[in-house]
Structures are given as C-alpha cells and as structure tokens.
Amino acid sequence: MAGEVRWVRPENLHLTLRFLGEISDDDLSLVSGALEPLGPRYAPFEARLSGFGAFPSPKRARIVWAGIGEGSEPLRSLATDVEASLEPLGFVREGREYTPHLTLGRARGRPVRLGAVESPSALPGFTVTGVELVESTLGAAGATYSTLATYPLSENGDQGPD
Asked: What is the pLDDT of residue 117?
C-alpha cells in the first residue's frame, strides 16, 4: 500500500473544521471577521485519537484517516459554529455531518484496498487551544499550509455558542 498512498507530512497534520475553497482577497477579510467571535466562546479542551479508517470505505480507500474520540463533541460544536458564522457570507452549509478526523494519506490515482488495521492500545492526545484560518497551496510535493489568522480559545469559554 505504501506506493499507492501519498502520506501527509507530520507538519501538515491538521483537523479541518470547514473547507472553504477559493476565496477572493476582499472576501478573506469578511471570513476572518466572521470567525473572530469563535475563540471567546470556547475553552481549550483535550482531544484523543480513537482509531483508523478510510473514506469512503477500507475496500475503496481514497482517504486514510485517524478518528477523534475524546474531544469530538466540542469539535462538532466548533464546526457547527463555523458553518453558522459563514452562512451569512454565502457559504452553503455542508450536506453531511461533520466527522472529526486527521487525514493521514490520500490514494494516488485509483482507490486502494486496505487490510485490517489494528489500533494500538494507547493513542496520543493533544490540547485544542485555538482555531486557525489556513490557506493551502497545492504543489508537486503536496499541499503547503499558511496560517492567515488565529483565534485562540478562551479559558472563560463555555464550549459552545450562546
């Protein structure tokens, strides 16, 4: 499988709350402003990996991912809040439920068939301390990410919208 999957470089691992696509420079400031109120509404929280899988399925894998167990509810709440914040700007809500995950790799070309994947007994955790507005630029070596704005979570946050 190694030759058939392009693995994400460790420095590029991230949780996507909402993919926005191409945004003009004019709209970028509107998006940034719309996301500004998010940070104070949420307190930092712990998240933990919970296993591995593939989209759309292990038999026809296009994306190999690590799931999120602990912390998935606050991540879902954040993703819902991002959707609500961007909807007035013309971003249409996603038609599917948000599934918190880290993308680990993408199939090169056609889908790959994965064998059984055993999860280690102890998977790492991390602290979610903020939300970032990130630009991705595709190149021959894969995506390069640049942080455009950071929205730190607040110790006074209540984990959700008012």
From this structure: 67
User: What are the tokens at 67?
Assistant: 């799931």
User: Which of 14, 59, 108, 113 is the catalytic position?
Assistant: 14
pLDDT at position 15: 93
CA dihedral 145, 149, 154, 160 (to 10 degrees): -80
pLDDT at 148: 94
Task: Give the number of domains in the chain.
Answer: 1
Q: Is position 123 within any domain?
A: yes
Instruction: Give the mean model confidence (pLDDT) for residues 128-154.
Output: 90
pLDDT cut 70: percent of the chain above it:
93
DSSP state of 139: E
Cβ atoms within 10 Å, residue 147: 9
14 tagged catalytic? yes
Q: What is the span of the domain harbouring residue 52?
A: 2-152
Q: Is the residue at 161 inside a domain?
A: no
pLDDT of res. 161: 46
Catalytic residue among 101, 102, 128, 151: 101
In a domain, 144, yes or no: yes
| Cα-Cα end-to-end distance for the chain | 46
